[in-house]
């Protein structure tokens, strides 16, 4: 049964999940990332979620809501999410807000992807593409 939550309750739940480092539960709006919900393998970046996924292959997708290439990549990833192999997590990372992360990984522009190892070291960084490029980078890293 779907229920509409009062705006104050919705905001309180979103704030609580943000403080806990979680993504909003499915069905709740994510106002900062274009309505994206927590999806298996593809989720909004938070340090806690990123750290918790340390045992997987992690990809940071530096996304901007105003970027047409980012929108196409987001649509491609979302549409083809079932093709994403288990063990890969893509983090939709807010290009405009995650300034420390951009500095850490040397990100100069949006629509940049970074494959990161368990220690947080960048294994590969590339601009452009979508799910196909993410899977190719993850497969190449496994062969290293």
Describe this structure in words.
With 144 residues, the chain is an alpha/beta fold. It has one domain: Glutaredoxin (3-Layer(aba) Sandwich). Helices cover 35% and strands 19% of the residues. The protein has five helices and five strands. The chain has helices at residues 7-19, 47-52, 68-79, 99-105, 131-142, and strands at 42-44, 57-63, 88-94, 112-116, 122-127. The protein has a five-stranded mixed beta sheet with strand order 1-3-2-4-5, with helices on one face. Strand 2, helix 3 and strand 3 form a beta-alpha-beta unit. The protein is globular and about 35 Å long. It starts with 6 loop residues before the first helix and ends with a helix. Pfam families: Thioredoxin (PF00085). Residues 22-143 form the Thioredoxin domain. This is Thioredoxin family protein. Residues 1-20 form the signal peptide. Keywords: Signal.
Strand and helix layout:
Elements: H1 7-19, E1 42-44, H2 47-52, E2 57-63, H3 68-79, E3 88-94, H4 99-105, E4 112-116, E5 122-127, H5 131-142
Parallel strand pairs: 1-3, 2-3
Antiparallel strand pairs: 2-4, 4-5
